[in-house]
Amino acid sequence: MVRFSRVLIVLPLLLVLSLSINAQRINTKKAYAAALKELTSALLKRQVVQKEDAQYGAIQCAHCNVLHTRAAEAVYPFAIMYKISGDEAYLKAALATANWLMKQQEKDGSWKETPEEWKGTTTDQLLMLLLAYESLSPKLKEQEKTAWKTAMNAAADFLFKNMTPEFASINYVATTTATLAKAGQFFGNNAYSNQAQALAHRTVSKMDEDGFINGEGGRSYKNKQGVDLGYDMEMSLWGLGLYARLTADTLVDGYVKRALKNHVYFIYPDGSLDGSWGIRSNKWTGYGSATSDGCQVLFSMYADEDPVYASASMRNLQFLMKNKAKDLIGFGQHHEAVFDTPPCIYPTFAKAKNIAMAYELEKEATRELTALHSDKIGWMKLFPTLDVVEVRTENFMATITGYRYKDPAGTKGKYMYRPTGGAVSYLWMKDLGFLQASSPTVYTRPEPMSFPEAPGTMSLTPRIEYTDSLGYFTNLFEFDSRLTIDSTQQGHYGVHASGELKDKNQLAGGVGYTIDYLFTNNTYQKTIQLSWHDAWPAIKIVEPFVDAEGATFNAIDDRTVIINTGKKKLKFELVSGNAKIILGRNRDKFWTPYPALKAFPIELEVTPAVPIFKQTISYKVSVIQ
């Protein structure tokens, strides 16, 4: 058994998954162990190992040139890797990491999320210490055990006194339900346990009717609203699920189970996690969010409920590991094309922590393979509490968003530059993957360390826009759009969106719009009607397509463009209306850190024909090879 486990962890993860899938079984334990091996090995290389160094045990980040205290959460993946492999290097790394972290603890028991002043991540660090202690305590001397317990108790006291929805975004509160439940059991402290229950019930009370958790956005009075799919799946729901497992709280467990039934729709066929539309989508990477943990722990806990969850976990894990830049998890598929520096270590240690928990919480060694919801062809689903629509045909899958959340801070808030207004925030294509993907309407750096510098970048989100003497106006700033769907004609799936082109202050400039989407198995068509009523600017319709290496975009005539991605050949065709097609304008600016992608813009320029105040433009993308 020992010899077998030591062999399996060095197998490449993609090979492990391929073998499992071909056999119609998913060997979850083997896949988690293989992924964990790859990620913890990368972290080991970056650990300060000179004992005479004051930072002995810290993990270095070449991207940020900072010793992130949160990186010490690697103590748990190191501990689990030691448990799996028996390799003393992981034991040594885990103990050194924990000792370094305890030296960074503040007097109030918290840890700052260096280089920021935020202390809410204390919940993540404490939970990893508590879980790691279970594996490492036999290797600790009595003096070391006392040091661990003292540090963990101080951190638990900090959370007990401070963590509420009034103090933090909801994902921290949800994680703290598990942290305090675990601390309550560890220390025999009923006060911690009672607080965990109170926070868990407050958190599930913020779920909407579709199971999405509000509380990630800005503060209105004392409460927060706003949903983010990435943080729901990669933080909040697993925190609540682990709390429910620790405490046998069937009420909370039921809420999580109900929520997960809707959330799993957002795992696309290639395993990508669609966090394109949520209020924290400025950190969406394609595989999840850059600084949240991951969905494997959530799916592993509920794998007995529905076989689709294990399949979703494995599919996302496979996609995640395709996003590596050298040995670290990057910010997206084109990380090495858009950055000349290595990634921040955040995605690597956060995903490693999640995978380690998934490995430990998975009850079965293997799971039956089953189709994802997104594998099934010919459906459309509206999430009414979100004004978000998903469409799936044979060749396409798309997310269209009109999510209406408005941040109380307005333009000063970091959540008001996400896609909305009836925009396609993610367009996926069979045998290709990303065809179009959204990015912030205006790139900002609300957390300077988490958001790389990207001067002059332009949004990748398909959009309608114009600029005049009053400013910049677009449907992406229309947070009051109206969406309806139509699937009455077999094989045809329609979505209708309407609104006004607005500026970042939510002020209309004088041009209205409607967008009618029509998806079939082989085509994706957009019909846009523009209504000039108080202004007469020229309008640009911008359609950026993911620009993979070797892709070409060639105009055949003034109404047709052939897109050759290297894997698929598509025709972009102006079907009706008068518009000038412009290829590749400002091409070098169409890239984004999150998700790390490049794109090629196709623009349709529409000039108003005074006194005619309405014009309709229709164009479609067809699969031709």
Automatic annotation (TrEMBL):
Reading the lineage from the top rank, the first entry is Bacteria
UniProt-listed InterPro entries: Chondroitin_lyas, P29_C, P29_N
Q: Which residues cross the membrane?
A: none
**Where does the Broad-specificity ulvan lyase C-terminal domain lie?**
380-619
Q: In what residue span(s) does the Broad-specificity ulvan lyase N-terminal domain sit?
A: 36-366
Q: Which Gene3D superfamilies match?
A: Chondroitin AC/alginate lyase
The molecule here is called: Uncharacterized protein
Source species: Flavisolibacter tropicus
Q: What is the lineage of its organism?
A: Bacteria, Pseudomonadati, Bacteroidota, Chitinophagia, Chitinophagales
